[in-house]
């Protein structure tokens, strides 16, 4: 069943809703939401949420989670931790597009009152996460929301830490370094993404993980993601993840968010500029008919997720400053 989970989700016709095997039980709680409960919970187990396809055209994370579920189904991986696997935007996944009406990854807020299919899906996903963490309240909560980026990147694999007053534990960064993440970006304010939801409302170890560039199914470089798959398997098995020195990663903090305020908006650099490209102080980055010009001030800043085509009022780019690696000598 688990190895056909993507097909079942896309067809919308699950043959069975739950099952019990020797090593684990599973329950389909909702379309695209499956929970795996180990027969024997490991001592180091965390309550693990792995989500993918919050943007429907980001296929590498779906393939990666498919590999994980196949390993469990084949008996190669014995679950040792409760695991909630979620596919975010199923209609967008079917259509191979980022979203249908609005960006699902801006809607994860308990006060969300907007009507519509994507807001309804955000409410359903938030409720599933709440119920899962409540069922496993004795375990540390963890949420990896897996994505791929629209553009090329100077660091193809990078982690975003949602805004929080509590710093990220050094061990969490060290795990991501061992899993092949090449950079980290700490958000400077609430952003109402799915990983932010778990961090903000559940104090989970939560990250958005960018795992390369958007590509159609079958065109993703899963070899580059082998260390990340190993981390997902270790967490699902309830094991102790490998750690590596944080100096392997480049660290950044967001200092400014550029929003598109009007139709008359453009970015002042080439469309193929990779994520994390640095711009010197004084450089004009964006022009908006309503908001005016945005220029780099103070220190060189690195542009991340530039996208002039976003909805009016939405984030069109982040500007980030380089910081020291946490735990590096001298810190
Ligand atoms: O490449 C892009 O422009 C967007 C890739 C993407 O979907 N990124 C996430 C990041 C979430 C966060 O800011 O934590 C998003 O934009 O939702
Ligand atoms: Zn995404």
Automatic annotation (TrEMBL):
Catalytic machinery residues: 210
Catalysed reactions, as listed in the record: N-succinyl-L-glutamate + H2O = L-glutamate + succinate
InterPro entries, A to Z: AspA/AstE_fam (IPR050178), AstE_AspA_cat (IPR055438), Aste_AspA_hybrid_dom (IPR007036), SuccinylGlu_desuccinylase (IPR016681)
Protein family membership: Belongs to the AspA/AstE family. Succinylglutamate desuccinylase subfamily.
Spans traversing the lipid bilayer: none
EC number from the UniProt entry: 3.5.1.96
Species: Halomonas cibimaris
Pathway the protein takes part in: Amino-acid degradation; L-arginine degradation via AST pathway; L-glutamate and succinate from L-arginine: step 5/5
Enzyme class: hydrolase
The keyword Isomerase is annotated on this UniProt entry: no
Record's protein name: Succinylglutamate desuccinylase
Pfam families membership: AstE_AspA_cat (PF24827), AstE_AspA_hybrid (PF04952)
Residues the record lists as binding Zn(2+): 55, 58, 147
All copies of domain Succinylglutamate desuccinylase/Aspartoacylase catalytic, residue ranges: 47-229
HAMAP family: Arg_catab_AstE
Co-factor binding details: Binds 1 zinc ion per subunit.
Role this protein plays: Transforms N(2)-succinylglutamate into succinate and glutamate.
Cofactor(s) required, per the database record: Zn(2+)
Residue intervals of the AstE/AspA barrel-sandwich hybrid domain: 248-322
Keyword tags: Arginine metabolism, Hydrolase, Metal-binding, Zinc
